[in-house]
Amino acid sequence: MSSSHIRTPRRVLTRVGVTATAVAAVMAVSSVATAEAAPAARRAPVTAKASPSAADVLSVAASLKGTPYRYGGNGPSGFDCSGYTRYVFAKAGRSLPRTTSQQYAASRKIPLGRLRPGDLVFTRKGGAITHVGIYAGNGMVWHSPRPGKTVRLERMDWAMGRSVVAGRVT
Fold this sequence. Notes:
Elements: H1 3-15, H2 20-43, H3 54-63, H4 81-91, H5 100-106, E1 108-110, E2 120-125, E3 128-137, E4 140-143, E5 152-155, E6 163-168
Antiparallel strand pairs: 1-6, 2-3, 2-6, 3-4, 4-5
Helix pairs in contact: 1-2, 1-3, 3-4
């Protein structure tokens, strides 16, 4: 990954109001992933598709800030929560199923204490998965919240009163 590619997400994330600490966390994850992937990348065939990095996912997520919520929307002019996460991951090179419950089922479950930027955060009410967002680091989540709102970066306390679970896209 070139240094210009790494600087792009930092500019995008900073421009949309992500804290410097969150940007540093994303850059650290991106740098570690790049360093770990370098030997494998040299061995990979030219046709191999790279997995999306946290920086790629968060860059796409941030670029959609302000897009209106639309029930059943899958972008780019409007999103519901799972349409947003599906669209973001697709643009970053990874497919996700359409609904929140399908995305939860398709992700590898992780404890909240092990969240990393780019992981999916789900709310659950009465056993049903009801909402999904993308963890940005430092307790912040990108999501498309509800009718009348727009895609935004918010503290995870938007989930107050609900059970929160997490999954990693592998």
